[in-house]
Design goal:
By secondary structure, the chain is an alpha/beta fold. The chain has four domains: 6-178, GAF domain (Beta-Lactamase, 2-Layer Sandwich), CATH 3.30.450.40; 181-202 and 325-424, 3-Layer(bba) Sandwich (Glucose Oxidase, domain 1), CATH 3.50.30.10; 214-319, PtsI, HPr-binding domain (Enzyme I, Chain A, domain 2), CATH 1.10.274; 432-747, Phosphoenolpyruvate-binding domains (TIM Barrel), CATH 3.20.20. Helices cover 43% and strands 16% of the residues. It is built from 26 helices and 22 strands. The protein has an eight-stranded mixed beta sheet with strand order 7-14-13-9-10-11-12-8. An eight-stranded parallel beta sheet has the order 21-20-19-18-17-16-15-22. A hairpin with a 2-residue loop joins strand 5 (115-123) and strand 6 (126-135). Helix 23 (686-694) packs across helix 24 and helix 23 packs across helix 26. The radius of gyration is 31 Å and the shape is elongated. It starts with 5 loop residues before the first helix and ends in a 5-residue tail after the last helix.
Length: 752
């Protein structure tokens, strides 16, 4: 590590004083470039700021012609300044005019200067501008001066990131940091959300940049590095998660970064140049992000997540944050995250949520299902969105086209306001269908049910004109609770659900946790493949006390009424037999103690595991009804992790194989006189719902918002014509039937 340098620290202290002076933005910039030039014995110091139109405008200079300020600019990639901005890397040249990228700007008067040092002004890996010093003599600037200029650029980055320089921008222009961004992703939940961005994991903003005492800062850094490495070691030695396997290798790579000497040394050098420990971490990570974001190698880009996480952990150790403090949500919050679980989404105030944007995400992941149930517009697979959004930015989420507009221009915003009004008018048209019977054009009645899981969902049942609740997800109560809900709390919820439903059917699903639905207060071992692991009925039968408590609460709540209860993830008939025996045991217990009982108890099984397809006859002989969970059934049929964004487009449920499987369930159930409801996400789209009706389903359950569009579809459908066309198609070699089904709908004027 190099020895202590007094010059840069003196310059940083002077800059800190300048930042506090009560002057306007231009005066402050002018004083900053004068201070840098004086301290570095440079004849020129200039600041170029990147505008939204990708031009670098000269905002301040000491040494060049003053009249060039705000009149001279370069394209991104043009000249030396444009090259630095495009590559996010410094240039240190003894004779700038000999460099092939040199561009002569006569209005600046820079032709008399030869030596040139320019560094990018970076924040979060994004280039905000360029800081340059020049001299007449031919010289290569020493490494200490390069580092000093990079450190100084951090101060300018914070100034640009604030709104102080906005007043200096030419009317009609924006700074690059605030330029509009149009991003493409995948629509996961239909809807439109207009609001302001809230980062699910807010960036830690470093406010103290300049060190008072370098030795103190170095000591703080070493303590934090030791703590960071200890925490990584602890993670690797935890027996509950660290067996041999893929995630062991991932964490070993993570540990390698934590112990990387080059990374730690660069941070120490930044501290020696005059930065606080946290500012040094941020500067090194800025440089690393800028470099890695420009790498074509996807492996290196993926490793950036590891380095980001390490840097953030180190920052939190330095500033003493054990957790992020909660801030009140704006009334029109759009949550932006890399990924999140369903419980994390439920932590937010539903009344204030307008949309959700994920860098990852998949159509049938549980967070998507919850977002759909909440009626929240959601777009996933939006690459790089976290690097482009700041808390408070205006943002539009288009859950129809999969587009995300960050800091949208006025015309785009006005167009979306009109779209929202149009959707409201269309929703009103759907609302007018709510009291009309769900009957196809050729007179076939269809049972349209809703999926629910929270008390706030219940008003939507009757608002949508649904025939009942085809799936009530009991686990959501467990996921939003701080501790395991007691029987009395469960009883109150189930009774409220039945009261709200009135004479409509309600089908409860027993506790379905595990996989990505983790209860923080329920200890369980980390699993290599949680979707295939200890979850749903498997956990319930292994810990029967949990299931018995829930069954007892349901029996109490349904006293004098009908109780419909189904068990998820049934793999073979023996599991259903054991679950049914627990219900009978609890029923006898309540009867023995004189409690009122339900008038009838109907028990069902969910068809989600493919093995059950070859036991349907045995299952039909045991159950009162069947429910097809198409999300998991499709996942297991295709051997595709439904939460994996990279695989989201690799299979289509509207292809012969899955449609044949779904058809088989209907055929066997009907031959045994057992009713069937399909309650997966397939039911919620008019096109896929049309396919389900065509293969024989007459009862489907979906998110409340889907009832109107699906009812409009079926009321325009001649089901007999569809069946005569579709059923023979299942036996033909197709890659998929989506295109053909769409063509059928268009030909027969079916509203999809």
């Amino acid at each position: 590590m190099r020895g202590s340098i007094g010059g840069p620290r003196v310059m940083l202290r002077r800059l800190r004083e300048l930042m506090a002076e009560p002057v306007n933005a231009q005066e402050r910039l002018d004083k900053i470039v004068m201070t840098i030039a004086s301290n570095m014995v440079a004849e020129v110091c200039s600041v170029y700021v990147l505008r939204g139109d990708s031009r670098l405008e000269l905002f301040a200079t000491e040494g060049l012609k003053r009249e060039a300020v705000h009149h001279s600019s370069l394209e991104l990639g043009e000249g030396l300044v444009g090259t630095i901005a495009a590559q996010a890397a410094p240039l240190n040249l003894p004779d700038a005019q000999q460099h092939p990228a040199f561009a002569y700007l006569p209005e600046t008067g820079e032709e008399i200067y030869h030596s040139f040092l320019g560094v990018p002004i970076l924040r979060g890996g994004q280039t905000l501008g360029v800081l340059v010093v020049q001299n007449r003599t031919h010289r290569t600037y020493p490494e200490e001066e390069v580092e000093a200029l990079q450190t100084t650029a951090m101060v300018l980055a914070e100034m640009i990131a604030g709104d102080e320089l906005d007043s200096l921008v030419t009317p009609g222009e924006n700074l690059a940091l605030r330029r509009p961004q149009h991003l493409a992703g995948r629509a996961l939940t239909e809807g439109l959300g207009l609001g302001h961005a809230v980062l699910h994991e807010p960036r830690l903003v470093v406010t103290s940049l300049i060190a008072e005492d370098v030795h103190t800062e170095l000591a703080r850094l070493e303590t934090a590095l030791d703590s960071l490495r200890t925490s990584v070691e602890d993670l690797l030695t935890r027996s509950d998660i660290m067996r041999a396997g893929e995630h062991r290798e991932v964490l070993e790579a993570y540990k390698m970064f934590a112990y990387d000497r080059g990374w730690a040394e660069r941070i120490r050098e930044a501290v020696v140049s005059g930065l606080t420990a946290e500012a040094a971490v941020e500067r090194v990570q800025n440089d690393t992000r800028a470099r890695m974001l420009r790498q074509p190698d996807p492996y290196l880009r993926d490793r950036l997540h590891d380095l980001d996480d390490l840097a953030n952990r180190l920052l939190r150790l330095l500033v003493g944050w054990d957790h992020l403090e909660d801030e009140e949500l704006p009334r029109d919050a759009i949550i932006v995250a890399r990924n999140m679980g369903p419980a994390e989404l439920l932590d937010y105030d539903r009344e204030r949520l307008r949309g959700l944007v994920l860098e990852e995400g998949a159509p049938t992941s549980h967070v998507t299902i919850v977002a759909r149930a909440l009626g929240i517009a959601m777009v996933g697979q939006v690459d790089g969105v976290l690097d482009l959004v700041n808390t408070g930015d205006a943002i539009i989420v288009d859950g129809v086209s999969g587009e995300v507009h960050v800091r949208p221009p006025a015309d785009i915003e006005a167009a979306y306001v009109e779209k929202v009004r149009f959707r409201a008018r269309r929703q009103e048209q759907y609302h007018q269908l709510k009291d009309k019977p769900a009957v196809t054009r050729d007179g076939q009645p269809i049972n349209l049910m809703v999926n629910a899981g929270l008390l706030v969902d219940l008003p939507h049942v009757k608002e949508a004109g649904a025939a009942g609740i085809g799936l009530f997800r009991t686990e959501l109560q467990f996921m939003v609770a701080a501790t395991f809900p007691r029987m009395r709390e469960q009883l109150q919820l189930y009774r409220a659900v039945l009261d709200a439903a009135g004479d409509l059917d309600v089908t409860f699903r027993s506790l379905d946790v595990g996989g990505d639905k983790v209860l923080p207060y329920l200890r369980s071992a980390q699993e290599e493949n949680p979707a295939l692991g200890w979850r749903a009925i498997r956990m319930a039968l292994d810990r029967p006390g949990l299931l018995r408590t829930q069954i007892r609460a349901l029996l109490h709540a349904a006293a004098g009424r009908e109780l419909r209860l189904m068990f998820p993830m049934i793999t073979e008939v023996g599991e259903f037999d054991r679950a049914r025996a627990l219900v009978e045991r609890e029923r006898r217990h309540l009867q023995r103690h004189g409690y009122a009982l339900p008038d009838t108890v109907k028990l069902g099984a969910m068809v989600e595991v493919p093995s059950l397809l070859w036991q349907l006859e045995e299952m039909v002989a045991r159950v009162d009804f069947l429910s097809v969970g198409s999300n998991d059934l499709m996942q297991f049929l295709f051997a595709v992790d439904r939460a994996n964004a990279k695989l989201a487009d690799r299979f289509d449920p509207l292809s012969p194989a899955p449609l044949r499987a779904l058809r088989k369930v209907i055929e066997v159930a009907h031959s045994g006189g057992v009713p069937v409801t399909l309650c997966g996400e397939l039911a919620g789209s008019p096109l896929t719902a049309m396919a389900l009706l065509g293969i024989g389903y007459r009862s489907i359950s979906m998110a409340p918002a889907a009832i109107g569009p699906v009812k409009a579809m079926l009321m325009s459908l001649d089901l007999g014509t569809l069946e005569r066309w579709l059923l023979p198609q299942l036996n033909l070699p197709h890659d998929g039937l989506r295109k053909e089904l769409t063509g059928f709908a268009q030909k027969h004027d079916v509203q999809i």
